[in-house]
Amino acid sequence: MDILYGRNxxxxxxxxxxxxxxxxxxxxxxxxxxxxxxxxxAHAQGIRVEEVPRNRLDDIAHTEHHQGVAGYFHAxxxxxxxxxxxxxxxxxxxxxxxxxxxxxNLGAIARSAEACAVDGIVLARNRAxxxxxxxxxxxxGATEYVPVAVESNLANALVTLGAAGIWxxxxxxxxxxxxxxxxxxxxxxxxxxxxxxxxxPITRRHCDAVVSIPMLGHVASLNAGASAAVLLYEVxxxxxxxxx
Length: 244
Description:
The protein is of the alpha/beta class. It is about 35% helix and about 20% strand. The chain has helices spanning about 5-15, 35-45, 55-60, 80-85, 105-115, 135-140, 155-165, 200-205, 225-240; strands spanning about 1-5, 20-25, 50, 70-75, 95-100, 120-125, 150, 165-170, 175-180, 190-195, 210. The strands form two sheets. The chain has a seven-stranded parallel β-sheet, with helices on both faces. Strands 1-4-2-3 form a four-stranded mixed β-sheet. Helix 6 links the parallel strand 6 and strand 7 (about 150).
């Protein structure tokens, strides 16, 4: 069971058809359009809605930033990498996240991924952020629409991607090739490393190409969420922003 909180994550979960046991709404919360749609969808789907004091909702969501609503949703079915590849559109566009541990970054990446019609995100099982309620909140509900595969061995996952004919393009601030020079019109998996550490050496060795984003100011790099957005929109720019 997943507890999601915030109006966008709860609403998008309902729109995506995820089953829920019940919703919890703060007493006296302002019924703006998103909340009205949440309540209407809950009623149409036969989902129980319970009103509770705001401090009780704080305890349920483990945060005060719940916007007056939370939901007890059934967990999403895990996606296998092989199934993700089978369902990918042409040319495939995937994200591989290496040791991204901040759920806010994961949520921001998922939001950009959904906006850019990414076929799926590949995460490591250990030492990495999972798709938690915090990540869902940061994604504004985008995590409901982007398939996620969790792999115990990221290097093996990269081997699988390469065998499927997908170019593995890593991001490294010291790479010689600028990010907008590479040809992304072929099937690609963008590999994004953690802030500070970047990609692990074993991950970098499994990349077919490594690109960098030029930094013109004083800071050395962008955070992982911003970097992923830059790369994804360059991919779609080269592909003509065609609907997928």
